[in-house]
Every structure is written in C-alpha cells, then in structure tokens.
C-alpha cells in the first residue's frame, strides 16, 4: 500500500493469524530499514517479507501486550511473537512505559531486558530517517499506544474501522478509552489514514475524518453517553 506522507516512507499491511490481526512493515525505503508493528502468529513469514524487500529489521513497535499482538500462551495454544522474533533477529522493541515491566515478568523473561525500550506519550522514534510519533491511548489496555507515521495512524486495538477496542478485558478502562478517542485521536487531521490492528470489516483502512463522521464511538458528546452505550 502507498503510505501517506514523505516519499521515502512505505507501510505494508499484512493480515495474519486466525484472529484477523494486522501486522505492519513500516520502512524507510531509502535507508532500507524497517520496523515490524505487532509481530505475531508467523514470524518466519514476516521475516521472509523483510528479506524479499531487502529491508533490515531495526526494531519492533508494540501497540499493546495482548498475546494476539505479541505472542505467548493463549487459550491452550502458543502464539508465535516477540520471543521468536528476538531469538531469530535480536532487535530493540518499543513498548509503553505504563506496562513495560510486565513484558519481562510475564511474557519474555529477563534475558531480553537490554532490548526493551520503554517509551512515553509523545515520544519520537526513528525508522531510518522516518520519524514515528508515539501516542499513548489507554483504555483497551493500560499500555495501548498508537504510532503516527507521516499522515498515517497505526492504531492497534484502540480504534478500528467503524468501531473501537473492547473494554471488558482485564486492565481495560472504558473512561480512559473515551478520552483516548475524543481527546487524542479525534484531534488528528481529517486526512490521517487509519491503519487498524484487525480486519473487522469490509474496509482495510479509513481516515480520521471518516471515522469522526460515521464511527459511533467517535461521536458521543459526553462520557456518560459513551459509558451507557458500552453497558456501564
């Protein structure tokens, strides 16, 4: 797909796994460096994509810690993810500081501590010479974060095309998600391209402007209205 923004930027959207996850390859096509967003399910296939494009893996951007996005044990099965990626090609991985310790304590173990980078809201990272702006968007999980690259928002499970992330999971906070949607994402330019964490509809992408007009979860005028609609 053609990414909106500077000409050196490319973003490849890959649907992967039985839960219709999206992994993204975000690359500086001049420097030939790339990061994977939420690498999970089939690490060898994702690495093959990088090799086919002659891209050097410089890191992994993590939207949140749920196993369908980073791998691990889930409902009696093991999902490939960060552990397998770091074993095959050690690289820095960027998680939000709100839940950074859990990545070592519950998911990966202390052996990769030197690869973990805990980032804060509004931090700026770089893929080659392409800047990536971090937006902390708690609600679906405490550590949920989105990545603004050029005019593109990689939104994880915070915002979907026509919907938003669940708030009935451990660590979810419906009030926090409301403010993430209305005070963070809704303020982005209307032409910002939305790149969600799952394929949950007929459209692969959208824009913030379109979601503001048609996504019901972006249209509530008050927190009370939003909470009633979410069953609280």
Number of helices: 7
Name of the CATH homologous superfamily: Ribonuclease Z/Hydroxyacylglutathione hydrolase-like
Count of the separate structural domains? 1
Percent in helix: 10-25%
Beta strands, count: 16
CATH fold type: Metallo-beta-lactamase, Chain A
Q: In the CATH classification, which architecture applies?
A: 4-Layer Sandwich
What do you see in this structure?
This protein is an alpha/beta fold. The chain has helices spanning 43-52, 67-70, 82-88, 100-108, 174-184, 208-214, 223-229; strands at residues 9-16, 21-28, 33-37, 56-61, 72-74, 77-79, 92-96, 116-119, 124-127, 130-136, 145-149, 152-156, 159-160, 163-164, 193-196, 206-207. A hairpin with a 2-residue loop joins strand 9 (124-127) and strand 10 (130-136). The longest helix is centred in the C-terminal third of the chain and has 11 residues, at 174-184. The mean pLDDT is 94.
What can be said about this structure in brief?
The protein is an alpha/beta fold.
Please specify the SSE layout and strand pairing:
Elements: E1 9-16, E2 21-28, E3 33-37, H1 43-52, E4 56-61, H2 67-70, E5 72-74, E6 77-79, H3 82-88, E7 92-96, H4 100-108, E8 116-119, E9 124-127, E10 130-136, E11 145-149, E12 152-156, E13 159-160, E14 163-164, H5 174-184, E15 193-196, E16 206-207, H6 208-214, H7 223-229
